[in-house]
Amino acid sequence: MGNTSSMLTQYDIEEVQEHCNHAFSQQEIVSLYHRFCQLDRNSSGFIPGDEFLSVPEFAVNPLSQRLLRMLDGLNFKEFVAFLSAFSPRTSLQHKIEFIFRVYDFDSNGRVTFDDILGVLRDLTGSFISEQQRQKVLTRVLEEAGYTKDSSLVLSDFMKIFGNSDLKMEVEVPID
Amino acid sequence: MAGLATSSAEMDLDRPNIEEYLTVESIREAPKKLRLFLDGALIVLWFRRDLLDISPTLKEAAGAIVDDSFTRCFKSNPSEPWNWNIYLFPLWCLGVVIRYGILFPFRVIILVAGWIVFFAAFSLVHFLLGEHNKWKREIERKLVEMICSVFVASWTAVIKYHGPRPSMRPQQVFVANHTSMIDFIILEQMTAFAVIMQKHPGWVGFIQKTIVESLGCIWFNRTEAKDREIVARKLREHIQGVDNNPLLIFPEGTCVNNHYTVMFKKGAFELGCAVCPVAIKYNKIFVDAFWNSKKQSFTMHLVQLMTSWAVVCDVWYLEPQYIRPGETPIEFAERVQDMISVRAGLKKVPWDGYLKYFRPSPKLIERKQQIFAESVLQRLEEK
């Protein structure tokens, strides 16, 4: 599927569907492909960060830079796999795993105090001082049974989120 | 890695719907030991729900990636091909031959002839007649209207004008939705408007400098911030003048694909005069008149129009509007945007058209950060 034609064959669609664990219907995959081609203006096979940032709704999101790192250089198949975390057909575990990956900045499978602090910094900006952020986080971690030096792995996240209801779904418009 | 502590607070994580039972009030009422236990559980809950759970923010980002209302405004929607069977295809080929082989050269000839006549007459009038000669202005106006009619004829435009024609009087400004630079030509053929325009390079710039200047135009530069005050002053001066041509402004500031309207900038609405809305809707039956300036040069756009059968559009001159007491210019702008959108059957979108060229202001991110920060600080105080 690395060619530059903007037509998807049935084989392509099925391959993508396999790769994302049937998170999207075939029609949705075709829609996503149109969207991918719209953003991938130079038909280079991946969407440059600048194109994502030219979508104002995305650019004003506090976590945009983090997500850009995850979106960097993805081809269409990987793009759909990325978005599969937001499908109503995906398991809660998969969504929790996605959140874990957002926190796990250096992708080493462990979320440390600094990692959580980083996300908190993105979300609160200059409206809380660094000291207050550290204070809140330390206290909350201690109450939850961790220390400042603990690092969380995926199973910890699974335990923390348990069977809470994660409303993390987007609707793919079908042209 | 620290193992999971076996505090009693931990075990509560497995129990569902704990938030239904734990409220700040119920905690205050419970005895102290129980209260400490419940405090801990509440913090753990808050750890997960309000601090660690970034899913709402992620969901917004993913929603924007999948589809967003801004990009939709500038998408040229290709029309369905109708020439796909054995009967229609030869007809279509014949059509192409006629359009490119007969109509196009014919139209170019008309256009060139019109320009020659125009330039001759315009130069004569411009250089021979004195600076403040009353006839000079009249003739120049009529000449501009003529060349616009020539342009319009060169695409065989079928234009239906509805409503009373604009009148020449001071203290009024005309606003219209913007799809292409041909909007200006279509409106100009009926009335010699003065416009406020961005200076373009190339032959368009040349025309702007010579002819459009004579109509009394105001120039602006999108990239200059200070420019806005100077332009506002010039606008105000222009509408005072009795002899000045009526002013036409496109408040969207950029070309939109004629299915949506983007935010109307308030500049035209804070001049303290009547605002006359004009709605323009193109019928895509033969050609899509949307000028996607990122995809085509204006020349190519014109060629595309000249090789199609016709440009069909409707122009509605709507009732002049005045700012209501207690209404801000921004609200006034929105009200007029609504009027034009409804009349022309366009969907309204709150985005600023300039986001096509510039990134959104960091203030928008900061607002979201501030809201989240406040909720975190509030929790900090509560404990």
UniProtKB/TrEMBL annotation, chain A:
InterPro entries the record matches: EF-hand-dom_pair (IPR011992), EF_Hand_1_Ca_BS (IPR018247), EF_hand_dom (IPR002048)
Keywords, ordered alphabetically: Calcium
Domain EF-hand stretches: 27-62, 91-126
SUPFAM superfamilies referenced in this protein's UniProt entry, alphabetically: EF-hand (SSF47473)
One family name in Pfam for this protein: EF-hand_7
Listed GO MF terms: calcium ion binding
Domain of life: Eukaryota
The protein's name in its UniProt record: EF-hand domain-containing protein
TrEMBL record, chain B:
GO biological process terms, semicolon-separated: phospholipid biosynthetic process; triglyceride biosynthetic process
Protein name: Phospholipid/glycerol acyltransferase domain-containing protein
Keyword Isomerase among UniProt keywords: no
GO molecular function, one term: glycerol-3-phosphate O-acyltransferase activity
First and last residue of the signal peptide: none
GO cellular component, one term: endoplasmic reticulum
Known pathway: Lipid metabolism
Chief subcellular location: membrane
SMART domains assigned to the protein according to its UniProt record, in alphabetical order: PlsC
PANTHER family linked: GLYCEROL-3-PHOSPHATE ACYLTRANSFERASE 4, ISOFORM D-RELATED, PHOSPHOLIPID ACYLTRANSFERASE
